[in-house]
Amino acid sequence: MSQFGLFVVWVLVFGMVHCNVSPETDSLSHVDVKDLMQRMILQEESLRKEKERNNELEEKVNFLVTNLEHTKRTFEDKCASLEQQLQRHQDSETKQSLSNAHHSTADKGQEDHRNNRGNKPFIDWQRLWYSSLKNHKVNAAAKINSPKLQRRLLVQPSPVTPLPLAFYAQKSSSTPKSEAGGDRVIVYDNVKTNSGNGYHPSTGVFIVPESGMYVFTWSFRNGFDEYQSTQLMVNNNEEGLMLLNQASDSSVSATGIAVLHVNKGDDVYVKISSLTSHTGTVAGDQWGKSFFAGWRLN
Predict the structure, then answer these.
(1) pTM of whole model > 0.90?
(2) pLDDT at 258 over 90
(3) Within this chain, do residues 204 and 83 fall inside the same structural domain, yes or no?
């Protein structure tokens, strides 16, 4: 067979092989591509779920960090308050010790005077006593009848006014919706009144300086289509609860008030309630400021 004949046979065989293999090869390639697409879809779904879990974990970590920082500031404020009370107590004890030492010295001087009376020459004390009594009666009558003494008797003693205990603070800026989560303490950082230094603007907590009956009031403001619920807390106990739901096209505010007996060292503060769902900012701007105030009833 000539070379040309061999070439023709080779071309025919190659064509037959190509015709038989190509459809099968194309079919396998299509299956592989489809399988790869399904795997890619599953992988993307897995990555999306993993990202959501990471975001949830990040939010929980941020919430725990915020609570830890707030607890730290509250602890530092309470330690500072206790140090002030201890210093006042030490000052009071020092004054009392000095007063006792003064009285002790005076009593000792009187005792020495009585012990030394036996060394003095005899004196007719009876006659001196009668003479002194007579002069005393005359002088007493003259003093009673004096206009100066009568004017002094008409003057009433000035009452001692107890130290007023009161505080009033506002929010200087709004708390954004992303940070206004459940159990978050609302910090009213712009202090207007703090008589007695019981309110701590770094934490938003009022540490009661003296036991008694107090009035507490608080307010907060929401924007359009927002709602929040806040609680007045004494230590870990809820003493007041207020819900604000704004459905109109403007912001609105609400105010709560409570009259409570609290003890020295108690923590009084306002927090966002975790008992209900909530969304929205706690506003503090030129349109209105949320506030927290309290005072002792004398």
Answers:
(1) no
(2) yes
(3) no
